[in-house]
Amino acid sequence: MLGPVFLTTALCHASAALALPDGDGRETVETVCAACHGVNLIERSSGYSRDDWEYLISTMVDVSGDSTRQDDILDYLAEHFPPSENRAAMPVDGPLTIRFEEWRVPTPGQRSRDPVEAPDGSIWWVGQWRDILGRIDPETGEMEEFALPSGARPHSVNIGPDGAAWYTGNRNATLGRFDPQTGEITEYPMPDEAARDPHTAEFAANGILWFSLQQSNMIGRLDPATEEVRLVTSPREGSRPYGVKVASDGTVWVACNGANCLLRVDPESMAVSEIPLPGAGTRVRRLDIDGDGIIWWVNSGLGRLGRYDPDTGDIQEWDSPSGANSHPYAIAVFDGAVWYNESGVRPDMLVRFDPDAETFQSWPIPSGPVYAGILRHMRPTLDGEALLIHQSATNHIGRVTVEGRGPM
């Protein structure tokens, strides 16, 4: 069962705007499910069979100890939210064959996310809703979980040049360093009380850790050698800095999740300049940079994939296969192509875009025996041979490899 501290936090974020249909079990669903998330997420799902609802719930909370309550929940959900096509994806066939590997993390309800590979081949993740840092040995499948400071709500994790796991304390306004050898945790608090929510971070080649603060509308940097944290505010009010990447020349690029723009940060002065993007409804969750310095981004607001050339200022966009409501989310340059996911459809689709041919191919992302989503961040392994993904709704960490190419 969920602990009382977790419930207190989660209740603050539950959306009760949607009224569930009348029926036996409604009150139980509202009591149990809405303690952790808005009931609108139930309505927004594609619906499931009773067996699949049972599996999905098992990744969130353990209600098996109360069979009456569990039956009430499952009977209600199966009757009122059966499988449907209300958010159907539009898969695209193509020449590639890929392989998915999955690991379901131990603690339910944690919302595991943002896997990253360490030099020893281990895969690290954070469980945002349960203050967890985790590690997988992909060779054996063995997993370890480490408790982070209560209330940190880690949003992302990176492996630093020092070999430590660095995480963003999204709710306690810190950056954290976990020493894998000793288990010691060092916290670096924000120097400004307005800087509330460290979000996504990336290390530059010189060891500086750059990070976004979405709701605070800021971008920050931490120098691990001096422990100095510096902050700068985005010039666009409400731009909500989100994804972060560092180019080979040291320039820091940041996505705007609240406005139609990209942000460019000078690594020395921290001066921030804005690159306006077309479409007032454009919202950029994340971005990546290819070997030629081209910036690729996902237009979550309009369901598109975008490309920006910093040298020429040229901007191009392509409609995502599942359309304007597909909500592209995570993105990575991998295997000579641009990969991203469509999080607004079911199943959550992994999409590959070939920049030379300007063609798409897509696959449903497994999430155990159900398609529940969602993928929020993806990164290649260090050798560039695989892509690390996750499904936070069902607490799965995944690895994708390209197995073969068929005829074009």
UniProtKB/TrEMBL annotation:
<dbReference type="InterPro" id="IPR015943">
    <property type="entry name" value="WD40/YVTN_repeat-like_dom_sf"/>
</dbReference>
<dbReference type="Pfam" id="PF24684">
    <property type="entry name" value="Vgb_lyase"/>
</dbReference>
<dbReference type="InterPro" id="IPR036909">
    <property type="entry name" value="Cyt_c-like_dom_sf"/>
</dbReference>
<keyword id="KW-0732">Signal</keyword>
<feature type="signal peptide">
    <location>
        <begin position="1"/>
        <end position="19"/>
    </location>
</feature>
<protein>
    <recommendedName>
        <fullName>Cytochrome C</fullName>
    </recommendedName>
</protein>
<dbReference type="InterPro" id="IPR051344">
    <property type="entry name" value="Vgb"/>
</dbReference>
